[in-house]
Design a protein that fits this description.
The structure holds two protein chains of two kinds. Chain A is mostly beta strands. Helices cover about 0% and strands about 50% of the residues of chain A. In chain B, a hairpin with a 6-residue loop joins β4 and β5. Chain B starts with a strand and ends with a strand. The chains are: A mainly beta, B mainly beta.
């Protein structure tokens, strides 16, 4: 079974631009979570989607948004990019709905650099 | 107090030794605990999860959970240089989020 895929793998943008990242979960998985990973803060939860609905959200500004499609694929968007948005963005999928007995499997990540 | 705390390391152990990685968490109601391994430049990969107090073994890995002390650990027996990586402890929070520690860097030297 194919794993979680993320596109693009690398991205370079300038301040003020916007970016859209894509995630395809493992086949059959319906929950998709997004995380930001930076050297200083570690892995931080952005949001989680299940059945096209945002079920949970972390403490990030409104510039960070996401959505999920009927085939469970998910996108996240960051508008008005800032230098501090440079990070590895990770998507994780799980079978059911992101509840405590679910196991999350990570994609390879998208490395975003903001200049 | 941080929600999930880990010693950043590096923890250096010789090849063949037991590596002991520790994690404490502040939410007494947490029920599920996960250990992920992350090689430099790669994404986290699941090693194992534990839900019940006590020990859970999987090959060279043993997870230990003590809910009363709010403590979870990972033991790696017969450590190999290929085990050198950052180990992330993750705790399922009562707000339905998976909260990660900042990770412990493990170095296994020949």
């Amino acid at each position: 079974k194919a794993g979680v895929t993320q596109t693009p793998r690398y991205l370079i943008k300038t301040r003020g631009q916007q970016v859209t990242l894509s995630c395809s979960p493992i086949s059959g998985h319906r929950s998709v979570s997004w995380y930001q990973q930076t050297p200083g803060q570690g892995l931080q939860f952005l949001f989680e989607y299940f059945s096209e609905t945002q079920r949970n959200k972390g403490n990030f500004p409104g510039r960070f948004s996401g959505r999920q499609f009927s085939n469970s694929r998910s996108e996240m968007n960051v508008s008005t990019l800032e230098l501090g948005d440079s990070a590895l963005y990770l998507c994780a999928s799980s079978l059911v709905n992101g509840r405590s007995t679910d196991t999350q499997y990570f994609g390879p990540g998208t490395r975003l650099t903001v200049l | 107090q941080k929600e999930v705390e880990q010693n950043s390391g590096p923890l250096s152990v010789p090849e063949g030794a037991i590596a002991s990685l520790n994690c404490t968490y502040s939410d007494r109601g947490s029920q599920s605990f996960f250990w992920y391994r992350q090689y430099s430049g790669k994404s986290p990969e699941l090693i194992m999860f534990i839900y019940s107090n006590g020990d859970k073994e999987d090959g060279r890995f043993t997870a230990q959970l003590n809910k009363a002390s709010q403590y979870v650990s990972l033991l790696i027996r017969d450590s190999q240089p290929s085990d050198s990586a950052t180990y992330l402890c993750a705790v399922w929070w009562n707000t339905d989020k998976l909260i990660f520690g900042t990770g412990t860097r493990l170095q296994v030297f020949p």
